[in-house]
Write a structure and sequence with these properties.
Blueprint (H helix, E strand, L loop, with lengths): L32 E4 L2 E3 L6 E3 L5 H7 L15 H19 L5 E4 L5 H7 L5 E4 L14 E2 L13 E7 L8 H11 E12 L4 H6 L13 E2 L2 H10 L3 E6 L6 H10 L8 H4 L12 H28 L4 E7 L12
Parallel strand pairs: 4-5, 4-7, 5-6, 7-8
Antiparallel strand pairs: 1-2, 2-3, 3-9, 8-11, 10-11
Length: 330
């Protein structure tokens, strides 16, 4: 298991540009140390925090219509591939979770909900919107957070935080709410970027998975496991290969070092879903560079995952069954 990242010589930063307490371990953030252009590290748990912390206006702009337009985000077969990967998650989740409701936090386009529903699972998606409205054709999605839900009598079979926890301003509270809602032996499924990965170190501030300001909290495996166990969960699986994005993040970083290439993430997105304009010639050059570098990215992602420093973290945790209380009958 990798050790907690440390930077002993880094100077402390003032807390006026971020939360007073670490969003993960909830200890005072006054001793946080600078680790990047817009990141600091909590000395207590090693988790990195986006700093300065974005205000509401910056987040509204970061999640504006271009980020997830109605027509889809990706050009070509991108959205279909995205739906296919969500289907593979559904297969695994349906197998390991007990019978009952699955809640997908940050359900987005609803691909995971659809894949689970096809297997006969009752599902509920939670998706925050700027205006409080959700698609009226999707009765299985509501604008809410975990704390807004009442626990069913038998609990929830599974809760999914698939590349969501890093977006939450209070991720530890989200874990507590998941524990409250889960049934005995219910499953909490988490995937998130690994701030302790080889990629994060190699690409520095250019690493795609920092994704600031949308990503607020940047976890590493030790802190994630420790936090989950402290909240009473049992970590059954912690790995790096299932969590997705590792190969693409490696490829994005490599292409970014090719002279004249554009941002690969923008290049694969539809024109109305790009953060910055990208001309056809530059987009073509970016695509060619990506095709040539793909084998290198795949090998690198596999190697770092086997080392335990993969770009993404995948966790399956369960809520242990409560032991029934017994009373002596007199």
């Amino acid at each position: 298991m990798p050790s907690v990242p440390t930077t002993p010589s880094a100077p402390a930063v003032a807390t006026v540009t971020g939360p007073d307490a670490c969003p993960w371990c909830e200890r005072p953030a006054r001793d946080a140390v600078r680790t990047g252009v817009r990141r600091v590290r909590c000395r207590a748990c090693g988790v990195q925090i986006t700093w300065p912390w974005p205000d509401a206006a910056e987040l509204d702009d970061a999640y504006a219509t271009w980020y997830r337009p109605e027509g889809g985000r990706f050009s070509g077969p991108g959205d279909a591939i995205f739906a296919l990967t969500r289907g593979s998650i559904a297969v695994r989740l349906h197998r390991i979770a007990p019978p009952g409701l699955v809640v997908d936090v940050g359900s987005g386009d609803g691909h995971l909900l659809a894949a689970l529903a096809r297997r006969g699972r009752p599902v509920l998606g939670l998706e925050r919107t700027t205006d409080g409205d959700v698609d009226p054709t999707r009765p299985d999605v509501m604008d809410a957070a975990l704390e807004d839900l009442e626990r069913p009598q038998d609990g929830v079979a599974a809760i999914v935080l698939w590349h969501v926890i890093e977006h939450l301003p209070e991720p530890r509270e989200a874990i507590r709410q998941a524990v409250r809602l889960l049934a005995d032996d219910g499953v909490l499924l988490i995937a998130c970027p690994n701030a302790g990965s080889r990629q994060a170190a190699a690409f520095g501030d250019r690493w795609l998975a920092w994704d600031q300001p949308r990503h607020l909290v940047h976890l590493h495996p030790v802190a994630l496991r420790t936090g989950l166990e402290a909240e009473g969960l049992r970590v059954r699986t912690l790995g790096h290969l299932r969590a997705g994005q590792s190969v693409f993040c490696a490829l994005h970083g490599l292409v970014g070092r090719v002279p004249g290439a554009g941002d690969l993430y923008d290049a694969i997105r539809r024109a109305d879903a790009r953060q910055r304009p990208l001309g056809p010639l530059r987009r073509a050059w970016t695509a060619l560079a990506a095709a040539l570098l793909l084998p290198v990215a795949a090998v690198a992602a596999l190697a770092e995952a086997r080392e335990g420093r993969g770009a993404s973290i995948y966790v399956e945790a369960t809520r242990p069954a409560r032991r029934p209380t017994t009373e002596t009958i007199r």
